[in-house]
Amino acid sequence: MAAVSSAKIGQKINEWYQNIKRLNVTDAEMLRSEIRRDLDIMEEDEQAVLYFQLMEFRHEQMLEYMNLGARKLNKAEYLRSVEGQGRKFTGILEYYFNFFKGMYEFSQGDYITAITFYRQAEKRLDRVADEVERAEFYFKMAEIFYHMKQTQMSMYYIMLALDTYKAHPTYLVREIQSRFVVSGNYIDLNSSEKSLPHLDKALEKSHAIKDELMIGISLMNLGHCYSSLEKYQLALDHLEEAENYLKRHSHIRAILYQQALIHFKLGNDELAKEYLQRGIDYLKSNPDQLFESLYDFLVNLYIKPLNLDDLKDILKRFDNIRGYPYLEELALESAEFYTKCERMEESVYLYQQMVYAQKQIRRGDCLYEH
Fold first, then answer.
1. Whole-angstrom Cα distance, residue 224 to residue 222?
2. Alpha carbons 14 and 20: distance in angstroms, whole number
3. End-to-end CA distance of the chain
4. pTM of structure
5. Where along the chain do its domains lie?
């Protein structure tokens, strides 16, 4: 059997990556299987093998995001094995390695390490000729800065990405996701009303392509936006509809949390407890430390007798770079509730915790240097 040229396999890997970015799982799986077969008869080319290994890692990240992964691949070990084979990454492969490693560290909640790898990738961004590929980098930068509440940086990168995705209709899912990030940034800027057009457009486009995951996330984000505007019934309506689309996705834990919180705010304690218990039950089979702490917060604040020491212990769990945005929100929520209960001295302490979180978030500006 004649050997397959490495150039031909490289083209197939490029096509594979396009489908990964578009979340086209079926086509991506088909191409991965086809390329695996071709590698057995490929002419010797170490760089092509490295390219395949890196893209396989990226493929597994896609499956995990879609809740389709069997989670058999230990991604940290896989990356270490690729890096530790004594091979030298050059040119575009150096970019991909740092970019994908940054994505992995972000998924693990290690934002500082993720930023470090993204910075290394950005130094090689001039090797990326395709504008859509550069938009993918801008999107990921915007995503991590959004989670760190570095709002201006996030907005800068996401608008670069959005302009490109809007010009390439085949990347409609990425346009939708970019609008989620724009929306979240507007909420963080206390301009929630500016979020609504982006979320309405995202929902419209999600329905147009019949993507149930994107429909559900659009509805969930609309619920969050209306909640920030204190339009609680509209928020609950959208969250309930989102739940119908996301019952089998990990986003359900955030939806149940939001529903419980809103009902507690409205004084609907029994209904709130139902959503809270459903969330707790979900975590029993799908553990997640962040949401376990969030649910513990609701129990402590709204169900148990008020005890500031216990609340302090829960808030301490958020005293880290990933947790500061949550600490800011939870401290404010607690302070307002303690004020309502006329526990003013304790309320002042909680407002101080909110200010502390805000200061830590602002210090995150120093993490990224051009």
1. 5
2. 10
3. 51
4. 0.84
5. 131-228, 308-370
131-228: in CATH 2.60.260.20: no
285, containing H or E segment: helix 269-285
Beta carbons of 119 and 153 less than 8 angstroms apart: no
Radius of gyration of the chain (CA): 22
148 within 8 A of 327, measured Cβ to Cβ: no
Number of neighbouring beta carbons within 10 Å of residue 281:
11
Closest CA to 96 of 153, 50, 146, 40: 50
Convert the pLDDT of each residue in 275-311 to its tens digit.
Answer: 999 999 999 999 999 999 999 999 999 999 999 999 9
Inform me whether the pLDDT recorded for 37 exceeds 60: yes
Cα–Cα distance, 212 to 194 (Å, whole number): 24
Contact 272, 257 (CB under 8 A): no
287 φψ region: left (φ > 0), alpha (ψ -120 to 50), beta (else): beta
Please, what is the Cα angle at 192 between 259 and 232, to 5 degrees?
30
d(CA 356, CA 145): 19
